[in-house]
Design goal:
Blueprint lengths: L1 E2 L1 H8 L5 E5 L2 H4 L6 E6 L5 E12 L2 H7 L2 H5 L5 H11 L2 H7 L1 E12 L4
């Protein structure tokens, strides 16, 4: 999965422990114990995280109601900003159609950028 630099940095430092995405076909295949490779969209640096929790929600708002904002967006983040960033990425139609998956993870390893 690709992450913008800010989100990638929060993940690699352990401040972001939950990734929220649409529960589309790709995320429907995610299982507990899986490894997910996250890639920084700017530097192409990668990190691997192990899936340690999965929760489905009807919407981003419902997920953010149930999950501490800091786990999703880092320390000091506010809920409104986190929700605005999520809803700016995905259309309301896609959110309503697919629902949302909250992936709780633990970073396992970091890798160097691809050449």
């Amino acid at each position: 999965m690709r992450l913008r630099p800010r989100w990638f940095d929060l993940l690699t430092t352990g401040h972001k422990t939950v990734e929220i995405r649409l529960h589309d076909e790709r995320r429907a295949a995610v299982r507990l114990g899986d490894s997910i490779t996250f890639s920084n969209t700017d530097t192409r640096q990668q990190t691997v995280a192990e899936v340690i929790g999965l929760r489905r929600f009807a919407s981003f708002a419902a997920a953010l109601d149930a999950i501490p904002t800091a786990a999703v967006a880092g320390p000091g983040a506010d809920r409104a900003t986190a929700e605005a960033e999520l809803t700016a990425t995905y259309s309301p139609a896609d959110e309503a159609h697919h629902g949302v998956l909250a992936i709780t993870m633990q970073v396992a390893a970091q890798m160097h950028p691809l050449s």
